[in-house]
Amino acid sequence: MAVGILFLLCIKGFLIGALAAMPLGPSAFLVMKRTLNGRGQRAGLFTGIGIGISDIIYATLAAIGVGLVVSWLENQTVALMLNLAGCVILSVFGIVTVVNNPFKKDVQTIRFDENTVKYYIGTGFLIAIANPLVIIFYLTLFAAFAFTPGTADSQSFYLGLLSVLTGDFCWWMLLTYVINKIRNRFDLKQIRTINTWFGILLIVGAGAWLIYTLFRI
């Protein structure tokens, strides 16, 4: 495939990855909360990496073929289990956020060891993978950008998906950088209030998600 076509494919993939990550859903709120609550950019960025792993799985499914994705989503048992799992995960995060004081320990005592990194990546992945409707968003973006790596050779397929992942990662890096910068403008009481409201929003979001899921049965 010509270099110019591959370059255009990468640009499209990068934009799709960034745009898919931008909506302020449960995943974005979790990234913002962890960046804001005293642990800084690394906590939010590692959470974003976990979300990105989930996103690339769904983007891959979308690239493989619309028919496969649609048939998978039409399996009501699979869709119901994933949505219920998402509701539970989201509500747990919300409750923990409301009841815990993020400043109970001094920020400097928080160490980023291997287990901490795994926790942030793993929980980010879990909250994102529980929302299979992300595939529909990817399919819409693929159509809007005429992005069809699944119909070309293997080189363009992998390069296209890598560009999507890169766009996704760059968005989380930008978001966590901005949030980390502005958090220094707030005192501990204000950040604690914001943290509590984040938790309430997560719980309300989980409730709305549950009601929507049950009405669809």
Given helix and strand content, the structural type is mainly alpha
**Shape annotation:** globular
Regions with pLDDT < 50 over 5+ consecutive residues? 105-110
Helix content: over 70%
Q: In percent terms, what proportion of residues is strand?
A: under 5%
Distance between the termini: 46 Å
The main sheet comes to:
none
Count of discrete alpha- or pi-helical segments spanning 4 or more residues: 8
Question: What is the arithmetic mean of pLDDT?
Answer: 76
N-to-C SSE series? Answer: HHHHHHHH
Number of strands: 0
**What's the gyration radius in Å?**
18 Å
Could you please describe the fold and organization of this structure?
It is a single chain. This protein has helices spanning 3-21, 26-64, 66-73, 76-99, 114-129, 134-144, 154-182, 188-216. The longest helix is centred in the N-terminal third of the chain and has 39 residues, at 26-64. Residues 105-110 have low confidence and may be disordered. α2 crosses α5 (114-129), α2 runs antiparallel to α7 and α4 runs antiparallel to α8 (188-216). It contains 8 helices and no strands. It is mainly alpha-helical.
